[in-house]
């Protein structure tokens, strides 16, 4: 995704960094409180009345919040751009990094949309897809973390500094 600006930024903006970490924190919260929404869904499938529970509400609200923030982050990425890949990376590593970032957006948007369709529409297939994407998201996170650690401790190219020091 190319930026509409004349030059490619040398780092991430303060907004991009904040959105990255807020989304990460909300995703952790979603995983931590997953059992509450799963229990409510199972009760719904069993024909039981699902009573209000604050952690179920937090999961639903958290999901919508992540969706909005992910779309916002994608918009900022498309208009502002992102820094170039580190110098010296093999083309295969560049392709992998780009693929993981694209997959993050695709999976997040599909997962959150599927969760909403399941919860508000009662669509069991959407719930199954939502659950499956949880594991895909964990795999993407693992690849992202492995790439970050590789750059920090093997390549020692200070790639992590792009997420710690904004360039506005």
Can you offer a commentary on this structure?
- The protein has 168 residues and is an all-alpha fold.
- 74% of the residues lie in helices and 0% in strands.
- It is built from 6 helices and no strands.
- Helix 2 (34-45) crosses helix 3.
- The mean pLDDT is 93.
- Belongs to the cytochrome b561 family.
- Its cofactor is heme b.
- One of its GO terms (molecular function) is metal ion binding.
- The chain crosses the membrane at residues 21-39, 51-72, 102-120, 132-154.
Total number of distinct structural domains: 1
Poorly predicted sequence stretches spanning 5 or more consecutive residues: none
Specify the helix fraction band: over 70%
Number of helices: 6
Cα gyration radius (Å): 18 Å
What's the shape?
Answer: elongated
Number of strands: 0
Q: What is the multimeric organization of the chains shown?
A: single chain
What share of the residues does DSSP label as strand, in percent?
Answer: under 5%
Largest sheet: none
Helix vs. strand class: mainly alpha
Question: Secondary-structure element order, as H and E?
Answer: HHHHHH
Rounded to the nearest angstrom, the distance between the terminal CA atoms is 19 Å
Mean pLDDT: 93
Short description:
This protein has helices spanning 14-32, 34-45, 54-80, 91-121, 124-155, 161-164. With 168 residues, it is mainly α. This is Putative cytochrome b562.
């Amino acid at each position: 995704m190319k930026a509409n600006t004349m030059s490619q930024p040398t780092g991430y903006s303060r907004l991009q960094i904040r959105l990255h970490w807020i989304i990460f924190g909300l995703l952790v919260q979603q995983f931590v409180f997953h059992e509450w929404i799963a229990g409510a869904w199972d009760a719904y499938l069993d024909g039981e009345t699902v009573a209000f529970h604050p952690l179920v509400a937090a999961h639903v609200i958290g999901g919508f919040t992540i969706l909005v923030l992910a779309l916002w982050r994608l918009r900022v990425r498309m208009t502002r751009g992102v820094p170039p890949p580190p110098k010296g990376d093999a083309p295969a590593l560049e392709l992998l990094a780009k693929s993981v970032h694209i997959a993050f957006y695709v999976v997040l948007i599909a997962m959150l949309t599927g969760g909403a369709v399941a919860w508000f529409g009662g669509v069991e297939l959407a719930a199954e897809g939502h659950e499956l994407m949880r594991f895909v998201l964990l795999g993407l996170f693992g690849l992202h973390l492995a790439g970050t650690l590789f750059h920090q401790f093997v390549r020692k190219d200070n790639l992590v500094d792009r997420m710690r020091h904004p360039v506005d």
